[in-house]
Amino acid sequence: MPREYRQLRGARQNNLKDIDLDLPLGELIVVTGVSGSGKSSLAFDTLYAEGQRRYVETFSPYARQFLDRMDAPAVDRISGIPPAIAIDQTNPVRTSRSTVGTMTELNDYLKLLFARAAQLYCRECGVSVRRDTPESILEMLLERAAEQTPRAMITFTIEVPENFTSEEVEDLLAQQGYTRIHSRRGRKLEVIQDRLRLSPDRRDRIIEALEAALGHGHERVVVHLLGEEGVLAASWRFSGDLHCAECDIHYQDVTPNHFSFNSPIGACQTCRGFGRTQGIDYALVVPDDSKSISGGAVKPWQTDSYRECQDDLMRFAGMRGVPVDVPWKRLGSKRQQWVLEGEGDWEDGVWYGVRRFFDWLETKSYKMHIRVLLSRYRSYDECPDCAGARLKPDALLWRLGSAGNAETVLPVKERFRPVGVKLQAKRWGELPGLTIHDVMRLSIERCAGFFRVLELPRPLDQATTLLLEEIGARLGYLVEVGLGYLTLDRQSRTLSGGEVQRINLTTSLGTSLVNTLFVLDEPSIGLHPRDMQRVIGVMHRLRDAGNSLLVVEHDPQIMLAADRILDMGPGAGERGGEPVFFGTPAQLLRSRASLTAQYLRKIGDSPHLAREKGTVPFSSFLEIHGATEHNLQSIDVRLPLNCLVCITGVSGSGKSTLIQDVLYNSLRKLQGRPEGTPGAHRAIRGFERIGEVVSVDQAPIGKTTRSNPASYVGAWKVIRELFAAEPGARERGYTAGTFSFNSGTGRCPTCGGNGYEHVEMQFLSDVYLRCPDCDGTRYRPEILEVGLDGKSVADVLDMTVSEALAFFAGQEPVRNALEPLAAVGLDYLRLGQPVPTLSGGEAQRLKLAGHLAKKAGSRKAGKKMETQGGGAGRSKLFLFDEPTTGLHFDDIRKLLQAFRRLIQDGHSLVVIEHNLDVINTADWIIDLGPEGGDAGGQIVCEGTPSEVAGHAGSHTGKALREYPAQLGSIRGQARKKAGRERKAPVPGGGRNRIGILHAREHNLRNITVDIPRGKFTVITGVSGSGKSTVAFDILFNEGQRRYLESLNAYARQFVQPASRADVDAIFGIPPTVAIEQRTSRGGRKSTVATLTGIYHFLRLLFVKLGTQYCPDCGLAVEPQTPESILSQLSRAHRNSEITLLAPLVIARKGYYTDLASWASRKGCDRLRVDGKYLPTDHWPRLDRYQEHDIEMPVGSVAVRPRNETTLRMLLTQALEYGNGQVVIEAPEGDAAFSIHRACPGCARSFEEPDPRQFSFNSRHGWCPECYGTGLQLSGFDEEQTGEEAWWTEKWEGEAPPCPACDGRRLNPAALAVRFRDRSIAAITGLTVEAAGSLFDGLKLRGRAAGIARDILPELQSRLQFLSDVGLSYLTLDRAAPTLSGGEAQRIRLAAQLGSSLRGVCYILDEPTIGLHPRDNRMLLDTLGKLEGKGNTIVVVEHDEDTIRRAGHVIDLGPGAGVNGGEVVVAGSVRALMKTPRSLTGRHLANPLRHPLCERRPVRLSGRGHDPCIEVLGARLHNLKNLSVRFPVHRLSCVTGVSGSGKSTLVRDVLHDNLHNRLQRQGRRRHARPEAAGCREIRGEQHIRRVLEVDQTPIGKTPRSCPATYVGVWDDIRKLFSNTTEARIRGYGPGRFSFNVKGGRCDACEGQGVKKIEMSFLPDVKVPCEICAGERFNRETLDVRYKGRSIGEVLGMNMREASRFFHAHPRIHHALQLLDEIGLGYLSLGQPSPTLSGGEAQRIKLVTELAKAKPAADPQSVQPGTLYILDEPTVGLHMADVEKLIRVLHRLIEAGNTVIVIEHNLDVISEADWLIDLGPEGGDGGGRIVLQGAPETCMGEAGQSHTARHLKEFLRERAVEGR
Q1: Partners of 8 in beta bridges
Q2: Which are the contacts of 667, defined by CB distance < 8 A and separation ≥ 6?
Q3: Is 539 within 8 Å of 549 (Cβ atoms)?
Q4: Pick from 94, 235, 1246, 1541: most CB atoms within 10 A?
């Protein structure tokens, strides 16, 4: 198949040089190059950013606000990019809920396996707990009886109800034949079921007796063995429930969630699944036990805030004789306990103790500073209820495997014993298998071994086999990438970057995602050479599964295993950013231009420079004794000083633990500067030889762009002094500070010394523009006139380090400072390059250069001290953790040179490293291992490289020996592959399909479904057959969930789909996008522009390029001087006292604790927050989610002439703190001033532009009168969003536009901002077509072109896509509620599909809803284009045209609900039509013939015409003053293209006017309201009432259901109350209501579900565990009617219930109607919020139909009801459409009138009267194109799109002869 490419054009991100690339899809491409060459800029900031951004844009606006969406990269165009996932070294997860098991999804599979295959053992007796059946009980009885046939008595126990006596119950039992009572205990009666002999020949009688006893005894039965003369010999208890009969303990049935600590069902209730609880660590409270009480032993009481507690302690200690001057450690345990625990409460006047102090603090923890204080002394203690297992105790009683399986991996003494287990230790150890917590605590390698030998009862079903295979494969992946030492319960926040990346890599492989771009950052980091091929194998499998991999890497093994290599360069920074080479590894080896190729050819050809023992005399050592932290096994380590020591070993062997946790933390503490808790060890010796310990990492240096390499190494200070010493500088009085761009008067005041303008572009890449005043030089022009040897200070900043060394050849101080930069290979950097732009490797080498520079600067001082006998001081110990991360071969060479320089300067280096080049050049190697985890933590060997290479047991030694030969072999293999280029990959690794295996979600019957990728698939079937379950609950949720695993945990809690579906496996699934059409059209503040995202980019355009005009004067705003503001204040506030405030925060959310601290340090004791003054020393906890305005009061002054100097000083200070803005608090009110933006006419100041200024959803932008709606809406205020139900529903008449803003929604200041002489409201007033022409013809230059570079393409593409879906006539400011259904759907479709992703699976839910046949075909063409881009299209649909266009059809059924859930047929449309079992196929092959019944004649003109309802002069919205008649007692259909005015005419004009008029007639016969939206309405006398049968929900709570709405539930409750048992118990109908107390379940209040709150996770609803979702309590459920309880009846579907209540006409009639209209699959008690709009509409129809009775002559009856239906065929299958049509005809026959808005041609063909609006939508519609009977309209096609399609339709489907 042809190869597909990602096309990259004009990439300019960071230092990329406008590059173009074609990157093949489905390949492993390695991006390499020197550090800073642009690798990450290309891979992550460009390709990953675009792929991730485009996919995230498909989420809802609500979800997007929580997602870490990448900014759009600086690039001209990227096409063909799939959704992207980054697998880098960052670990964003900080919650302890995330573990290795959750990250790898192994927890999900394990909980499924335990729920399916684990065995329960009783906590008290240890017996296996199983469900007993009559058959199993019999077999056990016969086995126990052996060959004897003893007599036995079978009994069951019942409990006497509270309102009965024992005698009454015994009488009832006697009536049923139970006359023998074995025992009476309290209110319990043990009833004898039967006495018999336990003989095999009496099997039938025994089983019958056991069945009856289990039924009456609530699944519990006792079998008493009778001895001689009937004496009880033994008693055996059995249970048909999950119940230990011996201990009488009931256990709950388990689901997978019982084994999940992230589920409220399984999580320990005490710790909420965290495994630990919070307390106080008294070792932190008393950190220094050498201090006494008086010396401050109790640390928290040594501050002024709590000095009172210290005083209390001193006072009570004196009273109790406790010495206060004795060190704490010698105080004695009793006295220490007295200090900590106290004697009683503070109120009692006794010593309260440290513990009660902290208890008191906990009550104040709502205050931020208290929470900060508590965090310093927190202890995290093991949860007492779960002992750290995180789960509820009962979940830990389930065990998996045999005793032998457990013994192989975990000794008995190490197995976990759950809290509450009462078994003896020996008995507990004899139990077979492991608990899930045992499995979690195993190392992954041992865990893999456990599942390899796991024995489960045979035969295994396919699901269990698949689970075992998946678990084994994922564990195998983790072992392969060298992570076998980790445990599944290891918290992910404790993992290193390399471990996180490799886990994510294996997780990505395990998710089976396809068509995805995976971008990896150095997967070799932290990996021993031994494990490198394993990682390569995982990446190859990920590629072969149908994905693309882009890997930033320098390891030669990974590079040579790639399909292609992209070498970036040729240098770093400004000298990089270009592709030096792009091709196969074999081609790279032949390249002469590539620096990478030169190193690859050399590696292995010659031995490395190795240092033998004795080269460096090891005279001094640093010794670590008895290190036992983590897995270190009490090792003793000697580190030679003044040399390069390399710590190596396989992953997890304990390297970082030894160096970071033990050595570094201990040395820092010994030096009096602790950073972390030292790891466990006995002692460290020789530390006095170390002057300082320094950890050098790759973290960024500084955050400001003014920090640069020259200033970091101290060269810039010397250079500034040289410039200040120049004659020209001395003449002008310039000092060294004048030449600083960080402060002083020399820097450019416009850019503040940055040299450029940073334009923040929010969701686009920020733009950096040269400062227009200094042209990027950073200085004022006069400063640049001072030269040093002909060079200005800006020229020097622009020099590279190498150029500067040559220029300052004669200046030794400058050369000494700059030379270290060249020594570490940074000679290419410019002196003024901003430090934040450096790569990680460059930042690390710059830090090294800084240390070298300090040594060079102090060398002379050291010599001077030596001559005086003082010595040069102690050396430093430098620690490096994998310093080669991100470094090219050439960078490593330079790094090693820098290492040698440090050693020559007398320092010591300890390096954790796996890179063999570094290991081979070390002076001393310490190899830890031999393996990772528990098998590591030992010293395998130590010595010189040659000595380690000779060690037989060392993996490092083996790698050193075999490295040259191995690389030589890889190079040879790469050369052999030359000329044999890898064939274009088949997507999905040859399986070009999505496979869903054994789906059981909802009503699906264990089905297997294959969906071809890259094709158009339709899933169809009758309503309720399971279509949406397959498409959305399984396919969409799983595809999105797997992608979301790449996002951070915070984001996932807001956008995580529903829990994993009940399905065995899903293969070959790409990322998915759902486009559901049944959502709200939008609120009062939603417009076409906001729905499509166009308005976001318009706001950004106006903020950055708009010109603010004064709304009062019409003049453009300009800067003003402080003197101008001073003059205004003097005039406006003369003789008044004012307070000047500096705005610090303007309308931003947050706590601002740090800001308060900063203000306090400035001497400010209070800040004004939202108009109120708050103290800075006790800063309260602000509302984090509310926008705040915070100002700092600078001072108050009376505005009088004599105070002008004070006023000027305060104003200057306020403007400085407020960044050019000041707020004046005066008696007349507040006023704001700005030196940046003010009107030259009236001096009015304006705020800095902000996108919120143009938002009508924000108070900063909306019109203060209409709050952004643009309408006069009575009752609407700023607290409402416009999304509320009462605003999204239709309103009476048309609301007039707001007079304040003239309907433009924004305030005057926002409307006064113009771009190209247009306000933002003027642009949104354009049609899509006009706006597209405007932006296509827009020509910008200079700064404006740079800013708009990324905005314009976004606007143009979105406008074009709206045109492509036929919406070019809409205006951008068209309000969402005024859109037709079809328009709203296509807008959502355009917004979702505009991302132009490739390889995605788009899932659409009935996209033809609301579409005219003409528009439907346009939509199908659009979907065809999307399919052509390599995407998979899955559509849930009933539309015939859509089905016929599909390449693959999946028909589910054959029925609905319990009768559906099967794949009836899957294949082509032709195969569907040939399948007799398929209802869809039958209707396609034999479509409905029209008309179904005799057409009713209609005569609306001439004398004696039929009665009708007439609308005259309709002119609402786009209606063009039209007049129309609707015949009464007829079925009328209003149709037309989307947006033609159908809903406006029928719903807004006809329905609303008739509804108002008929209502008023009922109250006052003569009141006749004026018609709204039209001139007049006539004919209302022909109808009794008007009712719109819409799709709004029938209820809003789970207690509302179809049975209550239709009205049958009351009759059903009466039936139950009339049963004998109910009458005996005194139950009335109210007892059987789930809405009132008494009979309903109290735990869930009759809802059947409970909401569970979870910490850090979304709240979830779970079935009530008390009633199991049946809504009623046990006593109510005991009452049965015809053998069914009230809960079981509530769970019946309509069809089943209709048969069940056949003898009750009132109930049967309504239920039969529901079945006939296609709702037979719904249950009586289905919660109304779960019903679709179409289902709700049909339930309302049935409610009306149940009241209607056919009339003999419909036209002679009294006025009937006018029913109005808007698209009632929504969601209906073809078979259900036929049922609907018959229902509509029955309504007509009952004397009613029906008007239907519809596009379905079957319904249109059945109409008696047809009204077609159009001819187009929007302004092109609103006219009557034609009207008449369908046959009449067919002959008058003309401009009617409907007539043309109807003619074609009826040509094939008209009944012959009609």
Answers
A1: 21, 78
A2: 684, 687, 690, 693, 877
A3: yes
A4: 1541
